[in-house]
Amino acid sequence: MSNILVLADHVGGTVRKTTAELLTIARRLGEPVVVYIGDGVESALPALARRGAAKVIALTNPELSQYLVAPKAEALQQVAQKVQPTAILISSSSEGKEIAARLAVKLESGLITDAVDVQSGDGGPVTTQSVFAGNYTVKPNAATPEAAQTAGTQPDVEEFDVSISDAAKTARITASRPREATGRPELTEAAIVVSGGRGTSGDFGPIEAFADALGAAVGASRAAVDSGWYPHAYQVGQTGKTVAPQLYVAAGISGAIQHRAGMQTSKTIVAINTDAEAPIFELADLGVVGDLHKVLPAATDGVKAARADPQA
């Protein structure tokens, strides 16, 4: 069976949902081999085992965490030359895309970004790609994580020593701090995202209240971010984050191509806008022509009432 390399996405040993999705896809294609960069691999093993990781290659060289993406691309190149995988799966984050691009050049291979599905085909992996915006980067929420039949088997761990060139160490990370907890899910991993745009007029209260009622993440359009109404970390769009949740609610967002590039592969899209001719309605599965400051509070009350009395 062919090897499929999966770059683990984790925080201090806690494996993100995106890694579970990648392993689910990798099992369709061959035998998953996880590349784990950093500390905490022992803590991550149970989660990786549940998703069918056949082997874990641990890269503990501290330089991989002290610099930006170039050392990671070099490390993956060395692992790929050792493992000879059929495909390499990387989550489609901003860092993942840059790592994949650098790696594709080093391996002289093809690159597909923003894949929303990967299946096994007669001639190799067959990939479905998002129309806006081998190695593959795969969008979060592109696959439903599934436990492997071999979930009870602990994967073997191999420590692999990689060498990092001086050229890759020109951009050092001088400081970092964890993002303040909001109690909401991570934007790129959330099953539901509620985003606000210019139509909020700077008041994201109704957006946040509706998101909290649904257990959703909060996003923002570029117009809202550029106006200083919401932090850039929550921007959805071509120059922000790409999301593909089960439900995306766009409130007060016109639907310019820049924003659509970051959310168009959402499974269900609901648009709320006072302008019935707004481009977002062309993409929406359900559209509401109205003021978000009236629509969202009513929707929030409805969600809370339904949760308080499921039989109502």
Short description:
The protein is an alpha/beta fold and 312 residues long.
Description:
There is one protein chain. Helix content is 31%, strand content 24%. The chain contains ten helices and 15 strands. Helix 4 (69-83) crosses helix 5 and helix 6 runs parallel beside helix 10. It is globular, with a radius of gyration of 21 Å.
Walk me through the topology.
Layout: E1 3-7, E2 10-11, E3 14-15, H1 17-29, E4 31-37, H2 41-50, E5 55-59, H3 63-66, H4 69-83, E6 87-91, H5 94-107, E7 111-121, E8 124-129, E9 135-138, E10 156-159, E11 192-196, H6 205-214, E12 217-220, H7 222-226, E13 247-251, H8 257-260, E14 268-273, H9 280-283, E15 286-289, H10 292-308
Helix pairs in contact: 4-5, 6-10
Features:
31% helix; 8-stranded mixed beta sheet; 312 residues; globular; 10 helices; 5-stranded parallel beta sheet; alpha/beta
